[in-house]
Design a protein that fits this description.
Number of domains: 1
Low-confidence stretches: none
Order of helices and strands: HHHHHH
Helix content: 55-70%
Distance between the termini: 27 Å
Strand content: under 5%
Shape: elongated
């Protein structure tokens, strides 16, 4: 694995696989921003979450509910970690492997099978 080649491919590549991966990263980053704010609320760093317009919404009630702490920790930081992991995985491996129909993560983690004789 050549770090320079990976950097160049991720930053300047134009393949369909890279476009899809960049879309995944953008969506995961937006989700991470949302869960960062929820995490700040659940951990007491901020006292109130804004609600969407309408009387039916109560972000504070939902994010401070018993179910939001069902795992023994607030679910906001758990979601934030999962979005971060999604971003890492979207950037892992070679895009050329995904274009060839192989999993990019598997192709970077395991050697290719030997060619048939």
């Amino acid at each position: 694995m050549d770090p320079d080649a990976i950097r160049n491919e991720l930053r300047h590549g134009e393949s369909d696989a890279l476009r899809r991966r960049r879309g995944i990263v953008i969506l995961a980053a937006v989700g991470a921003i949302d869960f960062a704010i929820i995490s700040l609320y659940q951990l007491g760093a901020i006292r109130h979450l804004p609600d969407p317009p309408g009387r039916i919404f109560d972000s504070d009630k939902v994010n401070a509910s018993r179910k939001a702490y069902a795992l023994g920790v607030p679910d906001g930081p758990v979601g934030l970690v999962l979005y971060g992991l999604t971003i890492v995985l979207a950037g892992a491996g070679e895009a050329s492997a995904a274009d060839a129909g192989r999993s990019s993560i598997c192709s970077s983690a395991a050697p290719s099978p030997p060619a048939a004789p």
